[in-house]
Design goal:
Elements lengths: L11 E5 L16 E3 L7 E4 L15 E4 L11 H5 L2 E4 L5 H12 L2
Parallel strand pairs: 1-2, 1-3, 3-4, 4-5
């Protein structure tokens, strides 16, 4: 597994698949990571679309999926190339809870 340090003089290219709110990008600049439409990103941000295998290169450090599960990511190829695969468990728990409660009152 590759070791990497976020920060320093290195600038990271992040490919965004799907749409995200602008406030979700604010912390990227602190780590000198910038959204860029590239075929060889250092990182990938994904919601629910399939991450193309062509983006999983030896330059890729991390794939972050917003939501539960990693079924849209080739989790076998990613570690072979040295990339970590992350997801955000429980991030939508409040929205699900609110939808269930509102359905009960209809």
């Amino acid at each position: 597994m590759k070791k990497f340090y976020i920060g320093g003089d290195k600038i990271y290219d992040i490919k965004v698949i799907d749409s995200f709110a602008n406030k979700q990008f604010s912390r990227l600049k602190l780590a000198k990571a910038y959204v860029k439409d590239t075929d060889e990103p250092h990182g990938i941000m994904d919601r629910s679309s399939t991450v193309p295998d062509s983006l999983i290169t030896d330059k890729l450090l991390v794939i972050s999926r917003s939501g539960v599960g990693v079924n849209t990511i080739n989790v076998e190829a990613s570690p072979e190339q040295g990339a970590a695969v992350l997801n955000t468990l429980g991030v939508n728990a409040n929205a699900v809870k609110e939808a269930v409660i509102s359905a009960l009152f209809q």
